């Protein structure tokens, strides 16, 4: 019995010691991890809203949830350049998350796929960058398009799907269109003309 | 897949090898003269060997008893020629071993023992006396299995026989000895059968013949009618191994002999037609088994025929009377090509279980180009015992005998159907025999 | 055994992956690219060396009966440190390796070395053993990833290697490719070993 | 008579005429009509693909056997059949290296690594195909060559797809329209419905082989000629194809329709795709199918169930190859648990 | 959780994202204990049992001890101002939970059912270091499943593992009789077989329950 108590004591001490060490490490690493997360999001937001100032992209909440972001040209949040939102759609083998940026008229100006675990070599081609090019060819198609144009060719739309990966292509396309329509509803309609942004 | 709709009476599995019976089926039985010398093994049956009661130098007459039965499951052997005992020593036996044998040099007289004579009072014999006579006449199943007949005719009281089957199926290719016997000695066969029925008193008696011998069916039906025998003569569709006891019972009665059991467990008893005739001889004529009908055939024999030969005549002697061997003779078998045993010498004697001497030519012999099993399942379809021969083969090959036992290796009747159809030429029967041996060795060691 | 051997045995003769078939899950899971493989190898080596050292240090004070739970706690601590540090400083790699970073805890190589070696040997030898095993593991991972990335993606460490004309054999970066590659590699090694012996 | 020692051997001393080479070459012969059909429908390119697949299979088999120091047994025809079946599972216009690599994989890793003929647990040709499909999916799913002699009213020419592909695409569009009303243009919906009805009326095309698809799978008629021959020779057991095709028909009839239970089109599903090729020539592969009668039924039905699952809700338009490969994996278990009753073991 | 969601989790865990053929979890026992069918079945049952249990207990531990929510027990017991975020301790917490769970289960089974202990007993100690167990608890956390979802995923992942293990064992038993090249015998051929099985399981990819 004494033995058991001794062992429990040793084990307890070791565990508490370990937890303490980890607490310390966590204390140091946590800000860094959050910083990394923030950076990643910022980078994505910037590729969605290329003309916005990195310091002037503000989230818009609905309850606890961020429903979209507003991007401004100036650090003092003036000169609205557009909105960004996260679109989610069920792909072939994963949920595909895309961050999409639109200008004030509802025209897509940038996008970045945040998460996808599609079939390597097929579905993942939605992120494929062709040899000698800079951006993914599939995503490039969306730039300049509006909600009504967004459907894959097989469904009668203008987006050329990735060969052999219609489901992934369709998931991205449809989720973006749905997100756009939702955004439009929230905003009560896009404006007819684009804001002039002074560079 | 078997089309079962039309098969009236049958058993599962089986094969249809070419029959090749036309070589001898129309040739009447030819009686061969007694040879100058016979070699009579003291054991020609399943059970304990007999003990010799003669000595070298003794003179014997045809029908003289040479041995004392070695026990209840044992029968004596008798002199098949008259002459002098030259030697009592191990000699090659057609089953492939050396067996103590009594060698008799003939005197050319062919003198018969005075005891061999018709018994006018045979009808008064009790069942016990009949069995005794059958045993002392040296009767052992003439179909090939050579199990002592008197034992078979003594079922224990708790297992009454309600169906008696006379086996004239003769499903082995080439063999026609039983066929000719039925055609030429139908009355004697029926008489022998009547004697056995008298002992057993079954409800039902059947004479089973494959339908490639319709003439025999007719003759036997007639003979049975004349004898006033209350029995059916049934023509069965040709299929190997129809003549195997368990398969025959299944085909005729639909009953399955349980695993490890005997026909009497389902109230049946099967006797070969040759045995029936020998029963008649033993009981009515008091004549022991000194000769038998043998089919000498195959493409390696010059003049295939059915012959009545004395027990103990050498294969060489018999073959000489059939015109000798042809060029290209490749295998000499005792029995048919499916279950027969290949002989390495022609000096072996004809024994009580020798239904045929088949000499195959090179072209007929199964080539054994062993290939890998492609799991085609033909052996499974062919096995009349419902086994998976290929599975057992692989288990035996890898010495996994416990599993082989689970897969039923002991149930194998060694009919050869599996190996006959195997496209890979695997020695399936060989593996079965080896597996059975090992498994029973282990079982004995365990008990 | 010489000190040098203590280190080199892990590389080939007692390679934890190829020779002992240990630590298979991360080996197969993250060997679809060399980048992941290197990251995983480093993380493993870090945990192996440090846990070996600590286990060797405390081996005299630990009651036999509870040594395994204590080893596990020690290992889990280092694994969590790696996890946190990687999340903070190499987020992409952290994302790519996924749950296989925390799963280093149950990697049989580490517990196996702690139990079989560090618990019985000096600190220095344990350190060398940890390094050797860690490098051996990394080497195995690297070899697998090298083959799989080149064939399956036409690239090496993310750089196009076989040119645009090469059509990558996708199956190599899918799960079946991992199984087939390691199976063939192990067979090849058995064959080479046997040839060398005879 | 000469005194010599005769050769002995164990019984039985006779055997029927069958041998493995004979079976294999006759299976190859039974596949010939479909092969000739492939060349007729898809042109000389098909012959070239078939030749490459067969040559590569034979070469790989011989090379490995030589390497292992085993007797070279390519004359037994099994490698030939594997190459042939693989070629029949390829689209007409694959690049030349596809059949070569596919056959090499099929023989090397599908068969020889287990010790060669008789030991492979899975169908090598199908493994080769699944390997190619996973490795180079685009090459394996593009059917550009329209078959000679017409297509299903032209719809498969413009899209270059097999009937099952077309069906899946059309059903996807309809499903899309159902879950998100108003998003898919009405013209696309009516086009999808038109495709489906056209497909469902194309029995003639499907039967004679005037549809897009893999080389050897399109003509049900030519395949059935070969199958009839194999059945006559008793090289294949009816249980597997009957169980397979029967369950596919039943399940597609029950669940294949869009208007509720038992509104599907079983005949279309039986005739389309590789079902007939798979059911008669690949699921029945002796080495990789169960040996017991009951096992064969379960195997065939299992193939049917998985095929229908993949066709109706899976990621691929066709599920024949995968279903057979998956059922191959169950064969040892099936054999073990469906042993036939040993004579006399049944309760009376 | 909706029944359909649970069905999707199950189908995914058994077929599409099978622990062995797709997620690479539990490979050591998969290769090690797949030589004979009987032991494979025993191992499989033990894994299903422990996985289900571990999934539920780990969810409880995570939800009430680690997550920074108002249901955190430390928040209530220590009267903290904000719920503490202890998720960084998940690895150490889960592995301790699993280790003690296995010990506990072993003891209970030994006491209550000697027959079950005989069948599962020898496999239980191996399970602590089976990464499939820790793996499933971490996956549940990653996927944000609730309690029922975690339990279902734990159970069905175990089923998927067992399916793979039993199929493999039955095939390996047959391969014992095959003429596999000498250097490939044992573990290498098991890997090749696993690769071929994984190819067959690709057939399930993209399965959608609508």
Polypeptide structure, described:
The complex is a heteropentamer of chains A (199), B (447), C (198), D (348) and E (210). Chain A is of the alpha+beta class and 199 residues long. Chain A contains three helices and five strands, in the order αβββββαα. In chain A, a hairpin with a 2-residue loop joins strand 1 and strand 2. Chain A is extended, with a radius of gyration of 23 Å. Chain B is an alpha/beta fold and 447 residues long. In chain B, the strands form four sheets. A six-stranded mixed sheet of chain B has the order 1-13-12-16-14-15. The longest helix of chain B has 19 residues. Chain B is globular and about 65 Å long. Chain C has one domain. Chain C has eight helices and two strands, in the order H-H-H-H-H-H-H-E-E-H. In chain C, strands 1-2 form a two-stranded antiparallel ribbon. In chain C, a hairpin with a 2-residue loop joins strand 1 and strand 2. Chain E is globular, with a radius of gyration of 19 Å.
What does the secondary structure layout of this molecule look like, with pairings?
The complex is a heteropentamer of chains A (199), B (447), C (198), D (348) and E (210).
Chain B: E1 30-31, E2 37-41, E3 51-52, E4 59-60, E5 67-68, E6 83-92, E7 98-106, H1 127-136, H2 149-152, E8 163-168, H3 177-184, H4 186-200, E9 204-210, H5 214-227, E10 232-236, H6 245-253, E11 268-272, H7 273-285, E12 291-297, E13 305-310, H8 315-320, E14 329-334, E15 341-343, E16 356-361, H9 378-382, H10 389-397, H11 401-406, H12 417-421, H13 428-446
Parallel strand pairs in B: 1-13, 8-9, 8-11, 9-10, 12-16
Antiparallel strand pairs in B: 2-7, 3-5, 4-6, 6-7, 12-13, 14-15, 14-16
Chain C: H1 3-8, H2 24-29, H3 34-58, H4 67-89, H5 91-97, H6 108-118, H7 123-153, E1 155-156, E2 159-160, H8 175-197
Antiparallel strand pairs in C: 1-2
Helix pairs in contact in C: 3-4, 3-6, 3-7, 4-5, 4-6, 6-7, 7-8
Chain D: H1 20-42, H2 44-67, H3 78-88, H4 97-108, H5 124-135, H6 137-141, H7 155-159, H8 163-179, H9 186-200, H10 203-208, H11 220-232, H12 239-255, H13 266-271, H14 275-282, H15 293-313, H16 320-337
Helix pairs in contact in D: 1-2, 1-3, 1-11, 2-3, 2-4, 3-4, 3-5, 4-5, 5-16, 8-9, 11-14, 12-14, 12-15, 15-16
């Amino acid at each position: 019995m004494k033995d058991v108590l001794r062992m429990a004591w040793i084990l307890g001490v070791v565990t508490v010691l370990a937890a303490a060490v980890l607490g310390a490490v966590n204390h140091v690493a946590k800000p860094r991890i959050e910083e990394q997360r923030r950076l990643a999001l910022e980078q994505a937001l910037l590729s969605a809203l290329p003309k916005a100032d990195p310091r002037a992209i503000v989230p818009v909440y609905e309850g606890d949830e961020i429903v979209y972001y507003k991007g401004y040209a100036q650090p003092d949040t003036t000169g609205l350049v557009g909105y960004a939102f996260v679109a989610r759609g069920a792909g072939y083998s994963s949920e595909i998350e895309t961050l999409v940026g639109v200008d004030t008229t509802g025209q897509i100006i940038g996008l970045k796929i945040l998460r996808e675990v599609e079939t390597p070599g097929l579905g993942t081609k939605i992120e494929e960058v062709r040899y000698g090019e800079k951006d993914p060819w599939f995503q490039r198609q969306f730039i300049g398009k509006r909600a009504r144009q967004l459907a894959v060719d097989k469904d009668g739309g203008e987006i050329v799907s990735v060969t052999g990966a219609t489901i992934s292509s369709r998931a991205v396309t449809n989720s973006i269109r749905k997100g756009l329509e939702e955004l439009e509803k929230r905003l009560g309609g896009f404006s007819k003309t684009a804001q002039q942004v002074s560079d | 897949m078997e089309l079962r709709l039309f098969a009236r009476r049958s058993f599962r599995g089986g094969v249809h090898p070419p029959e090749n019976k036309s070589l001898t089926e129309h040739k009447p039985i030819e009686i061969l003269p007694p040879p100058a010398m016979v070699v009579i093994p003291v054991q020609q049956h399943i059970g304990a060997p007999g003990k010799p009661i003669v000595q070298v130098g003794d003179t014997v007459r045809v029908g003289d008893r040479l041995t004392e039965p070695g026990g209840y499951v044992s029968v004596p052997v008798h002199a098949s020629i008259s002459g002098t005992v030259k030697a009592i020593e191990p000699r090659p036996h057609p089953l492939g071993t050396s067996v103590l044998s009594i060698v008799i040099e003939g005197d050319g007289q062919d003198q018969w023992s005075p005891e061999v004579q018709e018994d006018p009072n045979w009808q008064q014999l009790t069942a016990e006396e009949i069995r005794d006579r059958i045993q002392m006449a040296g009767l052992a199943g003439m179909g090939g299995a050579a199990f002592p007949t008197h034992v078979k005719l003594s079922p224990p009281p708790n297992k009454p026989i309600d169906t008696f089957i006379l086996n004239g199926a003769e499903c082995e290719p080439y063999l026609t000895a039983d066929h000719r016997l039925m055609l030429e000695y139908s009355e004697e066969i029926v008489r022998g059968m009547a004697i056995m029925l008298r002992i057993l008193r079954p409800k039902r008696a059947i004479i089973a013949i494959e339908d490639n011998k319709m003439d025999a069916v007719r003759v036997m039906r007639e003979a049975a009618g004349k004898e006033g025998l209350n029995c059916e003569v049934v023509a069965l569709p040709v299929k190997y191994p129809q003549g195997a006891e368990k398969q025959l019972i299944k085909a005729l009665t639909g009953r399955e002999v349980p695993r490890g059991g005997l026909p009497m467990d389902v109230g049946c008893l099967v006797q070969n037609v040759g045995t029936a005739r020998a029963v008649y001889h033993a009981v009515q004529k008091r004549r022991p088994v000194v000769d038998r009908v043998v089919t000498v055939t195959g493409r390696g024999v010059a003049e295939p025929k059915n012959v009545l030969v004395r027990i103990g005549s050498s294969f060489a002697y018999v073959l000489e009377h059939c015109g000798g061997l042809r060029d290209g003779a490749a295998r000499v078998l005792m029995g048919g090509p499916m279950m027969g045993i290949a002989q390495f010498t022609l000096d072996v004697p004809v024994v009580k279980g020798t239904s045929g001497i088949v000499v195959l030519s090179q072209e007929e012999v199964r080539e054994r180009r062993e290939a890998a099993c492609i799991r085609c399942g033909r052996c499974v379809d062919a096995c009349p015992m419902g086994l998976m021969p290929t599975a057992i083969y692989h288990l035996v090959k890898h010495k996994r005998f416990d599993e082989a036992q689970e897969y039923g290796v002991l149930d194998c009747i060694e009919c050869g159907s599996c190996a006959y159809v195997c496209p890979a030429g695997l020695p399936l029967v060989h593996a079965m025999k080896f597996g059975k041996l090992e498994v029973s060795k282990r079982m004995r060691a365990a008990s | 055994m010489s000190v040098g051997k203590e280190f080199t045995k892990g590389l080939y003769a007692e390679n934890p992956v190829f020779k002992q078939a240990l630590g298979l899950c991360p080996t197969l899971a993250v060997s679809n690219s060399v980048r992941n493989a290197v990251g995983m190898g480093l993380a493993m080596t870090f945990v192996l060396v440090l846990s070996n050292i600590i286990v060797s240090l405390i081996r005299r004070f630990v009651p036999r009966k509870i040594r395994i739970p204590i080893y596990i706690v020690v290992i889990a601590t280092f694994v969590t440190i790696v996890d946190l540090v990687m999340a903070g400083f190499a987020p992409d790699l952290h994302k790519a390796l996924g749950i296989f970073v925390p799963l280093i805890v149950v990697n049989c190589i580490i517990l196996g070395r702690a139990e079989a070696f560090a618990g019985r040997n000096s600190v220095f030898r344990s350190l060398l053993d940890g390094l050797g095993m860690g490098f051996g593991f990394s080497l195995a991972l690297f070899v697998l990833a090298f083959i799989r990335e080149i064939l399956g993606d036409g690239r090496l460490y993310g750089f196009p290697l076989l040119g645009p004309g090469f059509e990558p054999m996708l199956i190599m970066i899918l799960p079946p490719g991992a199984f087939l590659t390691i199976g063939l590699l192990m067979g090849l090694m058995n064959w080479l070993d046997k040839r060398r012996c005879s | 008579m000469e005194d010599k020692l005769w050769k002995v051997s164990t019984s039985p001393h006779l055997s029927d005429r069958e041998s493995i080479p004979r079976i294999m070459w006759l299976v190859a012969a039974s596949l010939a009509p479909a092969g000739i059909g492939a060349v007729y429908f898809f042109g000389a390119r098909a012959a070239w693909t078939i030749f490459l697949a067969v040559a590569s299979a034979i070469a790989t088999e011989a090379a490995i056997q030589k390497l292992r120091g085993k007797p070279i047994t390519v004359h037994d025809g099994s490698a030939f059949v594997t190459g042939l079946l693989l070629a029949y599972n390829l689209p007409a216009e694959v690049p030349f290296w596809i059949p070569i690599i596919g056959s090499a994989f099929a023989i090397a890793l599908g068969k020889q690594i287990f010790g060669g003929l008789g030991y492979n647990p899975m169908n090598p040709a199908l493994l080769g195909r699944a390997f190619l499909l996973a490795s180079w999916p685009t090459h394996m799913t593009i059917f550009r060559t329209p078959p000679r002699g017409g297509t299903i009213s032209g719809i498969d020419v413009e899209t270059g797809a097999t009937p099952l592909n077309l069906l899946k695409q059309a059903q996807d569009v309809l499903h899309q329209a159902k879950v998100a009303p108003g998003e898919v243009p009405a013209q696309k919906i009516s086009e999808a419905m038109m495709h489906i009805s056209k497909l469902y009326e194309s029995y003639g095309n499907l039967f004679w082989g005037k549809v897009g698809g893999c080389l050897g799978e399109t003509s049900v008629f030519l395949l059935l000629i070969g199958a009839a021959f194999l059945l006559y020779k008793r090289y294949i057991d009816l249980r597997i194809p009957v169980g397979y095709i029967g369950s596919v028909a039943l399940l597609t009839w029950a669940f294949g329709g869009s208007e509720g239970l038992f509104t599907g089109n079983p005949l279309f599903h039986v005739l389309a795709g590789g079902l007939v090729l798979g059911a008669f020539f690949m699921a029945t592969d002796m080495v990789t199918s169960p040996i017991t009668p009951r096992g064969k039924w379960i195997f065939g039905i299992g193939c049917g169930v998985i095929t229908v699952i993949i066709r109706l809700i899976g990621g691929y338009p066709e599920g024949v190859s995968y279903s057979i490969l998956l059922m191959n994996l169950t064969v040892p278990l099936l054999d073990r648990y469906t042993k036939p009753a040993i004579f006399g073991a049944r309760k009376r | 959780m909706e029944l359909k969601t649970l069905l999707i989790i199950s189908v995914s865990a058994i077929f599409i994202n099978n622990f062995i053929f797709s997620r690479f979890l539990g490979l050591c026992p998969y290769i090690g204990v797949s030589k004979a069918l009987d032991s494979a079945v025993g191992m499989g049952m033990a894994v299903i049992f422990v996985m289900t249990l571990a999934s539920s207990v780990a969810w409880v531990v995570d939800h009430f001890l680690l997550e920074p929510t108002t249901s955190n027990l430390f928040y209530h017991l220590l009267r903290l101002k904000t719920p503490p975020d202890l998720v960084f301790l998940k690895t150490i917490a889960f592995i301790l939970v699993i280790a003690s769970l296995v010990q506990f289960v072993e003891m209970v089974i030994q006491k209550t059912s000697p027959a079950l202990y005989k069948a599962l007993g020898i496999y239980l100690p191996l399970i602590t270091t089976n990464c499939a167990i820790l793996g499933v608890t971490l996956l549940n956390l990653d996927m944000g499943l609730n309690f029922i979802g975690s339990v279902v995923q734990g159970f069905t992942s175990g089923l998927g593992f067992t399916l793979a293990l039993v199929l493999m064992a039955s095939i390996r038993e047959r391969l014992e009789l095959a003429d596999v090249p000498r250097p490939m015998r044992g573990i290498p051929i098991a890997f090749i077989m696993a690769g071929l099985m994984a190819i067959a399981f690709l057939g399930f990819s993209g399965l959608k329950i609508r």
